[in-house]
Amino acid sequence: MSMLTGQQIRSARAALRLSVQDLASLAGVGEKTIRRLEEVDGIPEATVRTLAKVYKALGSAGIQFIGAPDDDPGIRVTTPKA
Q1: Cβ atoms of residues 20 and 34 within 8 Å
Q2: Could you tell me the domains of the chain?
Q3: Tens digit of each residue's pLDDT (9 = 90 or more) over 46-61
């Protein structure tokens, strides 16, 4: 898992048309956690475990994270994994 930025999480959630509540449920974290992660453009302060849950939830929904936090981070929407 590469590092996620708040901007990537916001973008991925928007691309999938997920609410904060939807993503929190998929990732198994609280809604406040999702809001806190999305507040920053760079790497949010969170445990590796929390970021891994969000990464896995969005990845399973069809998001590929591209770039690096300091080099054009972005997302690519793909066909969700079964």
Answers
A1: yes
A2: 6-77 (1.10.260.40)
A3: 999 999 999 999 999 9
